[in-house]
Write a structure and sequence with these properties.
Shape: globular
Number of strands: 23
Largest sheet: 19 strands, mixed
Low-confidence stretches: 1-33, 294-307, 309-323
Structural class: mainly beta
């Protein structure tokens, strides 16, 4: 397994090794501008630089995480998996709003997990760029991201529990290449029904919503509520692994931009030119695709075969009627 580094905000232990010099220990994952005050880690302006020539597996826990510089920057440079678990609560620095920026160099990959028992309360933007994924696994009822969320150039956010992103948040999926993605996650062991609600979903270039069934088996229901859906010019929203009756893309009926957005949505595996907007309840439309023409053909053929068999049976019965 990759080496694991577990660091509390008091810096008391490291799995696999022991540092006698606390300041040197912290320099291994951050920089000289960082300080600790009563269990709160104030990350310096250079942030976390993940540059080991091996797998990075770091867990940060034991208190609060913030930055007096206004931004917590995490950058992966190693040509390896960089796994960073944040069990701390990410907070603003007093009255100063704090944001989170995560980037990865070409051929590097960063996976962050927001865990811990309490909601993150930092209010500035979270921005992911490149080969970066955030997994939101806070307990049900706790918030992982409370500021606006920018997912750029192929980055992704994985949602594992109810309402991991605050309802007032504006999420922007933007990419000139591979789609930036918002994914609903599940496992064959724990097929939870859950809900995510956002204020706005904005697509700039290529964006995707992945409802989360890779093997084609049915999962429990996913409800994705949007106050508004905005898709820019020359932009496309792909809807991936959508299952009829299980996955629900719901947009408020007073949405300003929905009519225009409907022209730019592609349900993968369905006719991209045929979407329907139907009543879900008094407040929301549900967006669904029409079945593919091939599906209609199959249904027609099945009906034709059934009718033919019925006629044959009727003729057989007439032919064998008692005299």
């Amino acid at each position: 397994p990759p080496p694991q580094e577990h660091i509390t905000n008091q810096f008391t232990n490291k799995i696999g090794a022991k540092y006698e010099n606390i300041s040197e220990k912290y320099k291994a994952i951050s920089n000289r501008h960082s300080t600790i005050h009563s269990g709160t880690l104030d990350v310096g302006r250079d942030g976390f630089i993940l540059d080991y020539a091996q797998y990075n597996y770091i867990t940060l826990s034991g208190g609060n995480l913030t930055s007096s510089s206004g931004a917590i920057n995490i950058h992966a440079t190693a040509y390896m998996m960089n796994f960073f678990q944040i069990h701390d609560t990410i907070v603003d620095y007093g009255s100063q709003r704090v944001g989170l920026n995560i980037t990865a160099a070409p051929r590097a990959f960063a996976l962050l997990e927001f865990n811990g028992l309490e909601s993150n309360t930092f209010t500035k933007d979270t921005t992911l760029t490149g080969n970066v994924t955030i997994a939101l696994v806070k307990p049900k009822g706790e918030i992982g991201i409370s500021g606006n969320l920018n997912i750029r150039e192929g980055a992704a956010v994985d949602i594992y529990q109810d309402e991991q992103i605050a309802n007032h948040v504006r999420v922007v999926l933007s990419s000139r290449g591979d789609a930036s993605t918002l994914r609903f996650r599940w496992s064959s062991i724990d097929k939870r029904t859950f809900t995510e609600t956002l204020h706005e979903l904005v697509i700039e270039g290529n964006g995707a919503i992945d409802f989360g069934s890779r093997d084609g088996s049915l999962h429990e229901a996913r409800f994705f509520y949007l106050d508004d859906l905005i898709i820019g010019d020359r932009s496309t929203l792909q809807v991936i692994d959508w299952q009829d009756g299980h996955d629900h893309l719901l947009v408020r009926k007073d949405s300003v931009h929905l009519e225009d957005a409907l022209k730019k949505i592609k349900f993968m595996g369905y006719d991209h030119n045929k979407l329907q907007k139907g009543d879900y309840d008094s407040n929301f439309w549900e967006i669904t695709p029409f079945p593919e023409p091939a599906t209609y053909g199959s249904l027609f053929m099945a009906g034709t075969v059934s009718l033919s068999l019925l006629r044959r049976r009727q003729k057989a019965r007439l032919g064998s009627s008692p005299s």
